[in-house]
Design brief:
By secondary structure, the protein is mainly alpha-helical. It has two domains: 6-186 and 286-315, 3-Layer(aba) Sandwich (Rossmann fold); 199-280, Tyrosyl-Transfer RNA Synthetase (Orthogonal Bundle), CATH 1.10.240.10. 55% of the residues lie in helices and 8% in strands. The chain has 14 helices and five strands. The chain has helices spanning 19-34, 46-49, 56-72, 90-99, 104-108, 111-118, 125-128, 130-139, 153-169, 211-219, 231-237, 243-252, 257-284, 286-315; strands at residues 6-11, 39-44, 81-84, 145-148, 179-182. Strands 1-2-3 form a three-stranded parallel β-sheet. It has a two-stranded parallel sheet with strand order 4-5. Strand 4, helix 9 (153-169) and strand 5 form a beta-alpha-beta unit. The structure holds adenosine-5'-diphosphate and tryptophan (TRP).
């Protein structure tokens, strides 16, 4: 019997990945599941993504790309139960049960809802209800830790609230209260224009850029001519070389921006090449992604069905 504490996290298949996502979040995530301290369940939150992405082809493509990306950066499918949320019906089933225990005013206090409301958006019911599906994701597996960024902390508090409420109303400790694991803030990765790298600013270096794409993006990095050292180039260089090595390089080539950019291209390329190669090799064998997801689906269904058996009994439908 596996008694390690359980780790659960989900990632939405939205947006093209860039090196800001990788150095800021994805890499830490993979390291955490490698430690052997936890039994990790990681899933693609496709039903959460459905709130904003309503195009079947795009959903299929981005889901596969995200699975391949995580495998390429080192997520080990032997250690991790890796699956699609939509493959495990217990997530939406439990979400419904939680809906019946939650009031509208309570969900109206959620930050994500308030932000959407402040922007005067037409908010769909799925977005309003987002925290209930996320609570189901977490509570189905008795998660002890849920690694997320700071912005997701409230969602975990909501999951704790609903777990307590369920246990109280049905007078049985069916759910374990999860703790958050807030990933340490990693320095913001700057984009080619010096602002935070973000897909919405068009200043990204794609994680799976070819050598030529990489070269084009790096050559486009904005440099100001006031100093000896092009800060935007240096900041990106720091991701892949030690500061000590960089001191030597930037002293030797002081003021020679073109050479420094060429060195950055070579270093980024060297760093990213194995990840890119793994990604490309996964493209060549689509059955591998299918097999990993099929295995994950089976394990996640087994774990979640055991929990749902207790839930159905507790509420009196079984
Ligand atoms: P984007 O800003 O491109 O839309 P997301 O909001 O989808 O990126 O971010 C996904 C994850 O990647 C988050 O955990 C976020 O903190 C991290 N991330 C995104 N951009 C950066 C960046 N420039 N520096 C560090 N981390 C980042
Ligand atoms: N809401 C999370 C995000 O936007 C994704 C997510 C969905 C998740 N379900 C989860 C994260 C369960 C952790 C646990 O990043």
């Amino acid at each position: 019997m596996n008694t390690k504490p359980i780790l659960v996290s989900g990632v939405k298949p939205t947006g093209d990945l860039h090196i800001g996502n990788y150095f800021g979040a994805m890499r830490q995530f993979v390291e955490l599941t490698k430690e052997g301290k936890y039994r990790p369940f990681i899933f693609i939150a496709d039903y959460h993504a459905l709130n904003t992405m309503q195009d079947a082809e795009e959903m299929r493509r981005r889901t596969r790309e995200l699975v391949m990306a995580y495998l390429a950066i080192g997520l080990d499918p032997e250690q991790v139960v890796f699956f699609k949320q939509s493959d495990v019906p217990a997530h939406t089933e439990l979400c419904w049960i939680f809906d019946t225990l939650t009031t509208m005013p309570y969900l109206m206090r959620a930050h994500a809802f308030k932000d959407a409301e402040a922007k005067n958006k037409e908010i769909n019911v799925g977005t309003f209800n987002y925290p209930m599906l996320m609570a189901a994701d977490i509570l189905l597996y008795d998660a002890a830790v849920v690694p997320v960024g700071q912005d997701q902390k409230q969602h975990i508090e909501i999951a704790r609230d609903i777990a307590e409420k369920f246990n109280r109303i049905y007078k049985e400790d069916v759910f374990t209260l999860p703790g958050p694991y807030i990933m340490p803030e990693v320095a913001v990765v700057p984009g080619t224009d010096g602002q935070k790298m973000s897909k919405s600013y068009g200043n990204v270096i794609p994680l799976f850029a070819s050598h030529d794409e990489l070269a084009k993006a790096v050559m486009g990095i904005v440099t100001d001519s006031s100093g000896e050292r092009p800060e935007n180039v240096y900041a990106m260089h720091k991701l892949v070389r030690s500061e000590q090595e960089l001191e030597a390089i930037y002293t030797e080539h002081a003021g020679k921006y073109k050479i420094l950019k060429e060195l950055l291209i070579a270093d980024l390329d060297r760093y990213l090449a194995p990840i890119r190669a793994k990604y490309e090799s996964l493209k060549d064998d689509p059955t591998l992604v299918d097999a990993i997801l099929a295995k994950g689906r089976l394990e996640a269904r087994t774990a979640s069905e055991a929990k749902m058996g207790r839930v159905r009994k507790a509420i009196g439908v079984a």
